[in-house]
Amino acid sequence: MTEQSAVLARPPLPDDGDLDLLLLIRHFELALLDLFGQGLLAGTTHTCLGQEYVPVSLRPLLGADDFVFSNHRGHGHYLARFEDPAGLLAEIMGREGAVCRGVGGSQHVYRDRYMSTGVQGESLPVATGVALHLKHTSPGALACAFIGDGTWGEGAVYEALNIASLWRLPLLVVVENNGIAQSTPTACQMAGTVAARAEAFGARHHRVGTTDIGVIRDELAPLVSEVRLENRPLVVEFATHRLGPHSKGDDTRPHDAVREAEAHDWYRRYAQSDADRFARADEIQRDRMAAIVREVSARPLSRWEPCG
Amino acid sequence: MRVAENLNAALHGVLEADPTAYVIGEDILDPYGGAFKITKGLSSRFPGRVLGTPISEAGITGLAAGLALCGDAAIVEIMFGDFVALAFDQIVNFAAKSCTMYGSRVPMRMVVRCPTGGGRGYGPTHSQSLQKHFIGVPGLSVYEMSPLHDNRAVMSAMLASGEPSVFFEDKVLYTRRMYDVPDPFHSDLIPAGDTGPGVARVFLDDPEEADCVIIAPGGMVDRVTRAMRALLLDHEITCCLYVPSRLYPFDLFDSGAQDVGAGRLVPALRRARAVLVVEEGTAGGTWGSEVAHRIHRLMWRDLRRPVAQVNSLGSVIPAAAHLESAVLVGESTIYDAVLEALRD
Ligand SMILES: Cc1ncc(C[n+]2csc(CCOP(=O)(O)OP(=O)(O)O)c2C)c(N)n1
Ligand SMILES: [Mg+2]
C-alpha cells in the first residue's frame, strides 16, 4: 500500500478496546497541553499526538515478561502497557499516587518491566543488557526499545545494535520515524536510511507504512516471534507523523508541514469511517480524562525523601 | 602477593560466589586476559559470564547497567581509564540516576573498573587520573584501589552497596606487593563510613603523634611512603598517611561516630603541624580540594595552617619518561611539599 492510498482509505474502526485506548491516549495528551496552557504544569512534556497507534498496535505483541524502554515521548507507551492515566498524570503533576512519586516526571518512569529515560540513545545499550539477561533467564522474552528517527544520530545506538546482533540478543527496536527531531527534519539530520543501517548490522528491518492496527499486527506478529525464538534483533520502523509541537508549544514547522501531518491523523479518518460509534467512544474517553484531571489535580502533592 | 593477583582473585571470587555475576570488557578473554592481565583465567573458568566485547565503552557500560537493572552483578573493565569518558553518560545519567530517580530505590550492583594514572609512558590519552570528574554525583560511589586494602573486601563492598561504583586502579600498583610499607613503618585499617572497607593508615609508632598528616588515595601509597621514609631519615619528620578505599561519599567525614572516620582522624589532625592531601590528578575541582575543604570546615580554628594540596602539573601527560616524571606527582614532590608545609 502506498502512503497516498493509506491516507485516502478509510480503514475499519478497530475493536472497542483498541479504539478506547487510542482515544484515551489522545485525550490524555490533549489534556496535558491544556493544563500547560493554563499554567498548571511545569517543566516539559512531549506528546505523542498522531503516534498513539504505534504502542496500541504493539500491545498484544508484547507480554508481561518483556521489558520495555521508552523515551521522552512515552505517555502512549506507558498507557498502552498499564492503562493507568491517573498514575501517569499524578507523576507529571507531582501528586499523590504518582508512579514514581513525582521524581521522574514525564520522561522518567519506571514500573515493573517498563522504564523511560530522557537521554537520547541511552536506552539501547541498557536494553541489550536486559536482553542478555532475559536470554539467559527467561527465554522467549524480549527487550523492546522505542526510539525516534533523530536518535539515530547517537553512537550508542550502533554500539548496541552491533552487540545485539553479534551476540544474538532478543532486542526489538521500535523506531517512530515521524520525519522530525525537535525542529530538525529527518532529511537534514540523517544520511542514508534506517533500513540500510539495520542491514549493516545484520539486523532485520521492517517498515510499517500504515496506521491500520489490524494490518500492523498481522505484519509484525511473525517477525516479533522470530525475535523471541531466534534471538535476532529486529528494527521496526513506523513511518509516522507528529501532530503536535515537539514539547508544549514550540512548533516552528511551516503550516503546510503541519497540514500534511494532520492528513495522516488516524483520529480524523476513524471519525469518518463509523461516525456514530466513533463519536460515542470519543466522548466517553474525553469525559473520562476530564474527570481524571479534576480528581488528580485535587490530590495533595506527592511526597519523597531525597536520597531515600 | 602482587596487587594484580589480589585483584584477579577478587574477580574470581565474585564470579564464583554469585552465579548472576558478569565480567565484561574489551580483550579480557583468555589467553590474553585483558590489557593488564587482571582478568586472566576468568573466561576459562566462567565461560558465558565473562564477555569479550567490541570496542564500545558506552555500549558495554550500558549493557552492564541493563544486567544490573535485572538484578545481576556486572563488572566492566574499561581498558584504559581515560576511555571512561566515553561511558560518562551511561554512568552519570543512567546508572547513578536509576538508583533514585524513579521515586524509590532501584539497586544497581555494578562496578566500572578503570586502570588509571601515568608512570608507564603511555602518553596523554592513556595516563590520566579522571577521578575528579566522578566526585559528587548522587548515587555514584568512587573507590580507588590500594595495596593496603584487600580487593576481595573492596569488590564485595562495592557490589553490596547496591549503587554503581567507579573503581580507579593505579596501573603502577599492579606489580607492587600487597601491604608493602617500607621499614620502619606499620600499617593498620580503621573502620570508616557505614559499611565500606575502611581507611588504611601508615605510621611510625603512634598514628596520632605525627608531625604531618597526609591523606591520599591508594595509587599514591608507594610514593608517599617512600617520601615518608626519606623525611624520617633525613629530617626526623614523622608522617601518618591515611588512605580511604572509598573516595566518595567521604568515609573519612560522613560518619558521626567517635571511633570511626573523622572521629579517629581529628585528634591526629589536631596534633599535626601540617596536613597534606596528595593525588595524581591535576588540580582544580578535585577530590583533594573537597577533602581539604572538609577539614577546614571541621576544625578551622584548630589548624595551624591551611591544608596543603599536592597535584600533578596542570598539563597533558607526556610519553617520554623524563618529561612524564617532570609532570606527575612523585616521591620528591611529596617530600618537598611536606618540608614546605612544615617551614617556620
Ligand atoms: C542526548 C540528548 N541530546 C539531545 C536531547 C534533546 N532532545 C530531546 S528529544 C529530541 C529530539 C528527538 O528526536 P527523535 O529521536 O526523532 O524523537 P521524536 O522527538 O521525534 O519523537 C532532542 C534533540 C536529549 N534529550 N538527549
Ligand atoms: Mg522524530
| SSE order of chain B, one letter for each helix or strand | HEHEHEHEEHEEEEHEEHEHEHH
Full CATH superfamily name of chain A: Thiamin diphosphate (ThDP)-binding fold, Pyr/PP domains
Strand content of chain B: 15-25%
The stretches of 5 or more residues of chain A where confidence is low (pLDDT under 50) are 1-8
**CATH C-level category of chain A:** Alpha Beta
Show the largest interface: A-B, 39 and 33 residues
Q: How much is the radius of gyration of chain A in Å?
A: 19 Å
Distance from N terminus to C terminus of chain A (CA atoms, Å) equals 53 Å
Strand content of chain A: 5-15%
- What average pLDDT do the residues of chain A reach? 94
What is the CATH top level name of the largest domain in chain B? Alpha Beta
Bound ligands, named by name, code or SMILES: thiamine diphosphate, magnesium ion
Estimated radius of gyration of chain B: 20 Å
For the biggest sheet of chain B, the summary is: 7 strands, mixed
Structure described in brief:
Chain A has 308 residues and is an alpha/beta fold. Chain A contains twelve helices and nine strands. In chain A, α11 (266-273) packs across α12.
If you had to describe this structure to a student in words, what would you say it looks like?
The complex is a heterodimer of chains A (308) and B (344). With 308 residues, chain A is of the alpha/beta class. Chain A has one domain: 3-Layer(aba) Sandwich (Rossmann fold), CATH 3.40.50. Helices cover 46% and strands 12% of the residues of chain A. Chain A contains 12 helices and 9 strands. In chain A, the strands form 2 sheets. A 7-stranded mixed sheet of chain A has the order 2-3-1-4-5-9-8, with helices on both faces. In chain A, strand 8, helix 9 and strand 9 form a beta-alpha-beta unit. Chain A is globular. The N and C termini of chain A lie far apart (53 Å). Chain B has 344 residues and is α/β, with parallel strands linked by helices. Chain B folds into 2 domains: 173 residues, Rossmann fold (3-Layer(aba) Sandwich); 157 residues, Rossmann fold, CATH 3.40.50. Helices cover 32% and strands 20% of the residues of chain B. Chain B is built from 10 helices and 13 strands. Chain B has a 7-stranded mixed sheet with strand order 2-1-3-4-6-5-11, with helices on both faces. A 6-stranded mixed sheet of chain B has the order 7-8-10-9-12-13, sandwiched between helices. The termini of chain B are far apart. The chains are: A alpha/beta (308), B alpha/beta (344). Chains A and B meet through helix 6 and helix 7 of A and helix 3 and helix 4 of B. The complex binds thiamine diphosphate (TPP) and magnesium ion. The site of thiamine diphosphate has 17 residues of chain A, from strand 4 and strand 6.
